[in-house]
Design goal:
By secondary structure, the protein is an alpha/beta fold. The protein has 11 helices and 14 strands. Strands 3-2-1-4-5-6-12-13-14 form a 9-stranded mixed beta sheet. The structure holds nicotinamide-adenine-dinucleotide (NAD) and (2S)-2-hydroxybutanedioic acid (LMR). (2S)-2-hydroxybutanedioic acid (LMR) binds next to helix 9. (2S)-2-hydroxybutanedioic acid binds next to helix 9.
Amino acid sequence: MAAPTTVTITGAGGQIGYALLFRIAAGDMLGPGRPVRLRLLEIPQGMRAAEGAALELQDCAFPMLHGVELSDDPRVAFDGCGIALLVGARPRGPGMERADLLAANAGIFGPQGAAIGAVAADDVRAVVVGNPANTNALIAAASAAPDVPADRFTALTRLDHNRAVGQLAQALDARPDDVRGVAIWGNHSATQFPDVAHATVGGVPVIDALAERLGGHEAAVAWLDDVFIPRVAKRGAEIIEVRGSSSVASAANAAIEHVRDEQLGTGGATTSAAVVSRGEYGVPEGLVCSYPVTSDGDGYRVVEGLTLDRRAHARFAASVDELVGERDAVRALGVL
Ligand code: NAD
Ligand code: LMR
């Protein structure tokens, strides 16, 4: 049997933490043959909840779970860590935008990035879930340098990707796994651009399938502009309004799929993830930006060479501008 992978989950006593732990321990993230050792990082106020989850993990007697350790010290929790899920952060409430959390959460991701740089395994990969996820990943990556290459840090936009697929599957009465080639561009925020220009359903271009169902190309474009894009981009706020708190099970599911595909590969399929830009599609280098990506099991690679028409380009540019603004705001706080 393979040696266990040390997986560190921050905010493990919170809602998403609770939804993640049991699925990771059951093998949903790395597959049935890969044992895991879990490290739960919490702040002192969250420690009892994390302890409770650890007791329940013991009671599940998962065969692939080779230990659970808790700490409130990032240097202990990230020691030898191969995979980090950075979840712990303050979630937004009704009426807030994710960017309102910048100052509150910037102070968390700097020290955690530094601890990852100092003590994690050489091949560590980290995904940031805590919002504002893209800019928190930027902060963590900058703080882990030069010990960890920046491209080992990613941020979660798989939830947005899955939301887009779910909306299309419902509108087209299709199975979600028949929908391919959806892309989320930009920030994990209301400015994101969910793009179907290269997407297909059952091998048919999504735009043609929508036109067929809605009575023409114009009606399809109107549905994408007026219903689909805002629905996906604002789905987080819709969940907060309906549930009274932010998405949990769907976020945990997306984080597991993000890490699974990054580690095991996408088999040639395209998904979406926020990765450190190397300037692809004109995005300023170093921003953590969502792109269509593939993975061969060794990290995400941006799918290059896709065409963005004028309107698509304008939507993407608006989201990138927001990322630049967040980066500048964090710089002004003296965090970067
Ligand atoms: P929660 O409040 O239930 O849990 C957060 C936990 O983090 C708490 O237990 C808290 O004690 C802990 N925490 C706070 N500061 C910490 C620190 N410095 N170190 C370790 N732990 C710390 O929140 P939640 O519902 O689990 O959401 C967590 C984050 O995920 C929020 O920022 C939320 O906005 C974000 N989120 C992101 C996505 C996405 O798609 N990227 C989706 C859903 C939620
Ligand atoms: C989401 O997209 O559900 C999360 O980012 C939570 C939020 O604040 O919207």
